[in-house]
Specification:
The model has no long low-confidence stretch (mean pLDDT 90). The protein is mostly helical. 17% of the residues are buried. Helices cover 70% and strands 0% of the residues. α1 crosses α2. It is globular and about 45 Å long.
Length: 130
């Protein structure tokens, strides 16, 4: 990451992060169609939810009150999709931000991807628990 980039500190930074990230997602050949299939023409509502989610995680605002995992459980995704999602997130952070909060965002995104991937694999293959 570049030392000349700002850290994530404000709601405007959260909006930049979310907007830039989902712009990459929408144009991605692997995960873009999955998002389009689910979000369809409700992008403004989805982005508003993501502003609340990341604001809560990174700025401690507590605006997000949902349960993100159940919405992801039925998606046709596997490890390739989670790795692509995380790579796009890392690319977005590195293009726009640098500093402790940016590092925290990367850490939290990595944890989310790992946890969601694991839980979806377990749900798809319950015999893995044996």
């Amino acid at each position: 990451m570049s030392e000349n980039l700002p850290d994530i500190q404000t709601e405007d930074d959260i909006r930049l992060l979310v907007d830039a990230f989902y712009s990459r997602v929408q144009s991605d050949d692997l995960i873009g169609p999955i998002f389009e299939g689910v979000v369809q023409d409700h992008w403004p509502r989805h982005l508003a939810t993501m502003y609340d989610f990341w604001s809560s995680l990174l700025l401690g605002t507590g605006r997000y009150r949902g349960r993100p995992f159940p919405k992801h459980l039925a998606l046709p995704v596997d490890s390739r999709h989670f790795h692509r999602w995380l790579n796009l997130f890392v690319e977005t952070i590195e293009a726009h931000f640098s500093g402790p909060k940016a590092d925290e965002a990367l850490h939290k995104a990595g944890n989310l991807a790992s946890i969601f991937e694991y839980r979806i694999q377990q749900a798809q293959n319950p015999l893995n628990l044996l």
